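Entry 14. Ran structure prediction on the chain below.
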Amino acid sequence: MFVPETLLQFLDKEEIYYKLYRHAPIGSGDNAYLFPKTEGTVVKNLVLRTKKGKLVLFTLPLNDRADLKQVATLLQLPRFSFARTADLAFLGVPPGMVSPLALLNDIGQELIYAEPSELSAYPLINCHPLRNNLSIDIKLEDVHELIERSGHRVIRLKGALLA
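Output, structure tokens:
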């Protein structure tokens, strides 16, 4: 299981470029003013849960809003609620610290990963490397490669953002 230090070591070993930022803990987009000036587009991550416990990680640009009903429809899943802290225990990452990089800790393939198709307009994103007092700029294509190497699929959803 990765922790921030071993994740960054792994990225170094795999020769995946990233730029590290240290900052005050940031747990939600409501605290965006705490983010340092980054080159990458800051993303937020919603962990959603169906009544039967199916989990979805939906990553989108910080300033955009998800149409959760449409996300569920596009994934052919029933309505969502937000995941509980206990739902995330297997990731080793508390709420507010989840990012697509947390999929590397999902060895049981419990999460579905999805993002709006509009995210592809941002080749460089900024996300937490498993702790919310750190963030990294990393190429979106490198994130996708890591997701796929973890055994997950990247599902791009057209029409999943509110206008």
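Residues 4-157 form a domain with the YbaK protein fold (CATH 3.90.960.10). Will compare against last week's run tomorrow.
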